[in-house]
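input
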Amino acid sequence: MTRQAARPVEVGTPVRSSLLRSRNFGLLLATFSANAVLYNVATLTYRQRITPPALLGRVNAAFLWVCFGVIPLGALTGGTLASQLGLRPALWICVLGTWSAALFVVCSPLRRIRDMPAT
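output
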């Protein structure tokens, strides 16, 4: 029995076909990326506007520490969930967690702010 070499089309086919099945994958990825950029610009502008100049460095450092400091905890939690429940349920929990983060903004008074506070 001779072993045939894989043709280039066959390499990675399961991954590509699952991504291609979702027609809106590119659109969803672009939307998510655009929202991340808008969020970063909006939060930085808001923090710079309401924070006194003498405290701006400390406020930005605290904000970044909270945002990036939880990444290892999320990785640990995600790995634990994936090993205990399986990959697909862990990813669904991740999706629900990501979408639930938006509830903070939807339910907060930040949504009703139209003008920047006077300094």
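quick obs: DSSP finds five helices and no strands in the chain.
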